[in-house]
Amino acid sequence: MPRFGNQVVLVTGGSSGIGLATAQAFLTEGAKVAISARNLPRLRAATRSLRTFGDVRPIRGDVSNAADARRFARETERMLGPIDVLVNNAGIWIEKDLEAFTETEYDRVMDINLKGVFLCSKYVLPGMVKRRRGVIVNVSSESGFLAAPGSAVYSASKAGLLLMTRCMALEHARDGIRVNAICPGEVRTPMMEADARRLGVRFNDYYRRLSARIPMGRAADPDEIARSILFLASDESSFMTGAALSVDGGSTAR
């Protein structure tokens, strides 16, 4: 029997990269999946590609908007049933030295990376508490542990998410709810390709330089992160809560 047969999963930021790979992995394992995203064309394209694998439902909206976050939970439960797993994956990355950040940019990073997790969890948790079961996986980053130039705001958001994860885990450990974080390193996603374009360099050159800094000598594929998320969501990790799982090719081991 599939690991997630008939379970209901909500994946935020599910239209590309890690979120898309995670949605596909859950579908392959028998789950019914709702994906959320802000960009409607990408959301539609992702939904078309995922329907080959199972029952997927798109919900357009912004995780940092309270009304949208509430709607994600309500629409998922209306269409698919009670939510068993929430994957808080939506995120944004802006690389700038601190003094170059505008207040608007700062707010946007914090709103999506931290407030979005707060809001989506806030509206999913009551149902999990009532049923006394559920799993939340928060997608943090190696940047929650590592300092780097240009990463002050992003790293602060991801470090904050790690502490939020631990607090949520303690708050709900007696409710049958597990809350863990996954901390990817560099992942070969459209975001990586966009960064190469922003810097005006060929992607192959960009990727080669980036890979040289990783002990394993390469970036992760999105499906490698997805498999780790499924592990945290499954009964295979039944005694894990409040943990941060690094999947970074050894970057934080140094």
Protein architecture, described:
The protein starts with 7 loop residues before the first strand and ends in a 7-residue tail after the last strand. It is of the alpha/beta class and 254 residues long. Helix 1 (17-28) packs across helix 8 and helix 3 (66-79) packs parallel to helix 4. The longest helix has 29 residues, at 103-131. Strands 3-2-1-4-5-6-7 form a 7-stranded parallel sheet, with helices on both faces. The chain has helices at 17-28, 40-50, 66-79, 103-131, 152-172, 190-199, 203-212, 222-233; strands at residues 8-12, 32-37, 56-60, 85-88, 134-139, 177-184, 244-247. Strand 2, helix 2 (40-50) and strand 3 (56-60) form a beta-alpha-beta unit. It folds into 2 domains: 8-185 and 221-245, NAD(P)-binding Rossmann-like Domain (Rossmann fold, 3-Layer(aba) Sandwich); 188-219, no CATH class. The chain has 8 helices and 7 strands.
